[in-house]
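Whether sequence alone determines local backbone shape is best considered at the level of individual chains. The sequence in question and its structure tokens are set out directly beneath this paragraph.

***
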Amino acid sequence: MINRKMPKKTFSLVMAGGRGTRFWPESTEKKPKQYLNLWGKESLLEQTLSRLIGLVSLKNTFVVTVQEQEKLAKKNIDQFVDDKNLIFEPLGRNTAPCILLSLAHLLVNGASENDVVSIIPSDHVILNKKGFQNTLKLAGMAAFQNNEIITIGIRPHFPHTGYGYVERGEKKSLSSYETEETFESGEYFKVASFREKPTKERAHEYLCSGRYFWNAGMFISKIGVLLEEFAAHAPETYKFFSDLKRAIGEAKSTEAIYEKLPKESIDYAVMEKSKRVSVIPALFDWNDLGSWDALEDVLKPEDGNTVVKDRGHYFKEAKGNIVFAPGKFVSLVGVNDLVVVSNEKVLMVVPKSDSQKVKGMVEDLKKKKTVHDLL
């Protein structure tokens, strides 16, 4: 007998308030990564919203950002959701307060605690839309049927040191569900632990054990279950929930309350402590684009190099380079494994192996008053 017990109403929260610096100089505080059009015709945020079409009603899709990104956000959501579906974080307090504020906003705007919400990042690359939607449908079923929080695990294919990991525990089974994708007969796993970004040696151990997933930072749950876990594990944050809910729609009151919330990530505040978290293996490709070198996994090489954007190029004895130079002709001779980025104001060249150091470069440049306009 097939159990089609599904939530009557689902919501999505797209987290789009980040100020990432790893894609500098193209990504800046004024235009963070989620608003970049690195290839194709859509920004990463637009790609994320497009991926949700057919899965969640657009009227139930909300984008969470910060006030200073309002103009960018409105431009990027214009073809997908109304401006009233923007939720503004009054000031940066990390993901736990941001999610609690967003849940209050949903409840004030027609959601119930029995409805399921999918919380997803705005700046990841996922090419398999069908697999993504099937995975989130299954996660929504599990969350609804079993009153638990579901996270999505990405099967690692190399020992990455830039991601957090999720350790799987006991195997669980989902009630029968017909899908065009294989889902290991409805099997998923209790989360045994969340692990921070590992050393190279530890990451290799995780890979070889077969028990670990990359943490994709996606969470699917009934709204009420999330609130129960906030109350149980983050009481110093949750105690402001009723006040936040009453203040929705009043910007100054919301900010006055919000600034009192502890600055904590959702992983630290809730997920790492909760006993109600399970992990479903992803049925889709995934890349969080954490640095310029990640583009090699997304784009096919041209003449032995990864060309993101340019006006044309000449390569001779040059291999393994990554090029981003919109509107410019690029010549590379006798150089290998470099990241070459050029825009209207900045030229940056770094060894590909040092892509993760771009963030540190930006921090150093912040100390120089003469270049603040470039950051």
User: Anything to note?
Assistant: The chain has a mean pLDDT of 91. Residues 292-374 form one domain.
